[in-house]
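# step 3/5: fold
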Amino acid sequence: MRRESALTVAAILGGALLLAAGNVLVPASGSLHVSGFVVGLAGKYLCYALLALAVDLVWGYAGILTLGHAAFFALGGYAMGMYLMREIGARGVYANPILPDFMVFLGWKQLPWYWFGFDHFGIALIAALAVPALLAGVFGWFAFRSRVSGVYLSIITQALTYALMLAFFRNNMGFGGNNGMTDFKDILGFPIGTDATSVGLMLVTALVLAGAYLLARALVASRFGKVLVAVRDAEPRTRFLGYRPEHYKLVVWVFSAMLAGIGGALYVPQVGIINPSEFAPANSIEAVIWVAVGGRGSLSGAILGAVLVNLGKTWLTGALPEMWLFALGGLFIVVTLFLPRGLIGLLARRRAAPKDAPAAVAAAREVTG
């Protein structure tokens, strides 16, 4: 377990440092130079890995198949987007130091109360954690207390994110409507869009992902995590032994929502936009596929799956854009049928095979001899 954790953290941080060095230290004319575009893609993939980690915590360890975690990711993104819009100030198209451009365009006369404080980075960061946690806490309290589970819970989570998507499409919500928020200028005084800022954001995301992974690993390795797995595998028996499964589910559900929220907050300054399409149910389904490909119930597998599937998406949508959805569906079917434990499970079997082979041969000789 410790070896796997060390390798995962080393891969995250080492890969990020290599990309940063290739951008900063290698001249643009050099063959080993890493462009700002690639750095931005890597940062985006790391944000997706945070979302995959959040999904794996509730699906892989608690048995809750969520089809709505994109909602928490998007809410964290909107919290950061509000801060970035306030940072623009008078540099916007309408030169209004208080109201974002889209509010001026839509005829808003004053800043809504729920935008107060978002000119401070700390408030935005707290909101990126607290808002998803609050929504997850309220939803989870009612759902788990009512013992809703299985496909019914999955459908409800999908309905939740779809309802939020429709709500954020409305102009009178005060979040930019269909167009969302964009045209960000800087974050904490650093200009957005420059290579230096992209490298910094990518490195920060890698650090956050490594820290989130270690925190999640400590959680699932603890007594709490063991009870959580027991709830996943035999909830009625666990309840009979005196545990309250709904409490364990609620805690991991809220923690998972916070991870997704911080992933969304880091995602927005790196892609430069946040709009209601981030709530789309298809995004949540894709996150489930990332986890399935990497290996459900393996935190490092979730990270691996998110990075590899999105690498494939980037390549395939450029080469054969009309084939991407077919490829994604086919990938999910193949993994479900032939790799139920994902790529991590396949690697584990290959590592174990040489060790098991001598024992099997010795046992066969003893039987036949």
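# step 4/5: annotate
The mean pLDDT is 91.
# step 5/5: archive (pending)
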